[in-house]
């Protein structure tokens, strides 16, 4: 099975990476297409076959940026444009000796981690042609960390390949954008995501279609909805709470409940992982289960706990953001019904409730609600207390 088989909706990008993995070596010339190349098929085709030191994969959340990055890494590390099973297992486990991953469980990628990755990027490959470094969420680097990376991209080691992932080119410094070859991903169709869920996760076609539709083609969220009844129930409760707001008191109560739902969702992702990490760390330090932690080892446990707290904060913020995305889909459906576009409804299982809301308000009021959701996302990103941001947003949801 080719390493690309579990990717969906990205045939053009896969063709670019597969051709690059087949190239005999890395080009020393410029990284980006010349001006106007996209409009000249002869130039674009020639550029598509080249291999370069630095890549940037961009696309909306859920489009499969990191999955494509690791598939490309597998092809490069195996020396086979379709990859091989042994290399794939090592890449999936992040244990391949020539693979480095720079990511973060917190809000930003720390500059110390960037410096360490840059230092290790100068190691020669152990078993293959390339040393591959994948930077997930490259947009989470602050300017100082980005400048450290920039110096490395200007003069990369001969056999090192950098693969950066970010939502868009605009999320990175212009100087970094000028030194990478950018590949843009598209949002897969609902049918494409549903087909992937049926094939990969062995769920029924009906469950897969609903999960893909409600996730709005976000592959990771579609997987969660398709495979977790609890995730589906939490989403349904959130939407029903939003549709049931008639007073300011309802808005306040709904904000508290949504925050609790986001917390439950975050804990479902992190709790089991935290426990396994702590157990493995104690075992590696020689501490038996139930034994008191020696004073000399407490600083290492404290570092682990701090990392887990940062991950929990990010997971909570991600959970709140997922709720806001779901609420956006809800009121998008309302305005579609108000405009007579019944075929565009995402949350079809709530059509009766949506019709009641659409008939009790105007499109202008619905647009105000959608704008309130956007403002809430910006406020939370700016470290406004989530409870206050949610309450201010939900007050605009009131319907008679």
TrEMBL record:
Sections of the chain in a coiled coil: none
Residue ranges of every copy of the DNA polymerase III delta subunit C-terminal domain listed in the record: 322-397
Xref: Pfam families: DNA_pol3_delta2, DNApol3-delta_C
Keywords: DNA replication, DNA-directed DNA polymerase, Nucleotidyltransferase, Transferase
Catalytic activity: DNA(n) + a 2'-deoxyribonucleoside 5'-triphosphate = DNA(n+1) + diphosphate
InterPro entries: DNA_pol_III_delta_C (IPR015199), DNA_Rep/Repair_Clamp_Loader (IPR050238), P-loop_NTPase (IPR027417)
Superkingdom field: Bacteria
Nucleotidyltransferase is among the record's keywords: yes
GO terms, molecular function: DNA-directed DNA polymerase activity
EC number, as in UniProt: 2.7.7.7
PANTHER family linked to this entry: DNA POLYMERASE III SUBUNIT DELTA, REPLICATION FACTOR C / DNA POLYMERASE III GAMMA-TAU SUBUNIT
Stored NCBIfam families: PRK07940.1
Protein name as annotated: DNA polymerase III subunit delta'
UniProt source species: Luethyella okanaganae
């Amino acid at each position: 099975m080719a390493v690309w088989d579990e990717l969906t909706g990205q045939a053009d990008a896969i063709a670019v990476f597969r051709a690059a993995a087949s190239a005999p070596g890395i080009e020393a010339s410029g990284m980006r297409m010349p001006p106007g190349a996209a409009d000249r098929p002869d130039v674009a085709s020639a550029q598509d076959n080249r291999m370069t030191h630095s890549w940037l994969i961009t696309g909306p959340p859920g489009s499969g940026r990191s999955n494509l990055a690791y598939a490309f890494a597998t092809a490069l590390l195996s020396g086979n444009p379709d990859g091989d099973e042994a290399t794939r297992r090592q890449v999936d486990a992040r244990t391949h000796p020539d693979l480095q991953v720079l990511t973060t469980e917190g809000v930003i990628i720390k500059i110390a981690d960037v410096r360490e990755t840059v230092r290790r990027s100068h190691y020669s490959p152990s078993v293959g042609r390339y040393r591959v470094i994948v930077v997930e969420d490259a947009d989470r680097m602050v300017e100082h960390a980005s400048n450290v990376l920039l110096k490395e991209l200007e003069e990369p080691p001969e056999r090192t390949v950098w693969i950066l992932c970010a939502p868009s080119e605009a999320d990175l410094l212009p100087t970094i954008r000028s030194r990478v070859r950018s590949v843009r991903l598209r949002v897969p169709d609902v049918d494409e995501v549903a087909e992937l869920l049926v094939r990969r996760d062995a769920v029924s076609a009906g469950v897969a279609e609903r999960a893909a539709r409600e996730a709005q083609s976000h592959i990771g969220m579609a997987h969660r909805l398709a495979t977790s009844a609890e995730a589906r129930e939490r989403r349904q409760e959130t939407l029903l709470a939003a549709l049931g707001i008639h007073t300011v008191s309802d808005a306040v109560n709904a904000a508290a409940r949504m925050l609790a739902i986001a917390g439950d969702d975050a804990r479902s992702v992190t709790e089991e992982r935290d426990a396994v990490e702590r157990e493995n760390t104690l075992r590696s330090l020689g501490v038996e289960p139930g034994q008191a932690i020696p004073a000399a080892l407490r600083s290492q446990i404290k570092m682990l706990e701090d990392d887990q707290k940062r991950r929990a904060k990010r997971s909570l913020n991600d959970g709140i953001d997922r709720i806001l995305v779901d609420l956006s889909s809800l009121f998008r459906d309302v305005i579609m019904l108000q405009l007579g576009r019944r075929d565009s409804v995402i949350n079809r299982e709530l059509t009766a409730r949506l019709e009641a809301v659409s008939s009790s308000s105007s499109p202008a009021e619905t647009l105000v609600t959608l704008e309130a959701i956007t403002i809430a996302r910006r406020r939370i990103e700016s470290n406004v207390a989530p409870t206050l941001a949610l309450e201010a947003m939900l007050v605009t949801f009131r319907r008679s």
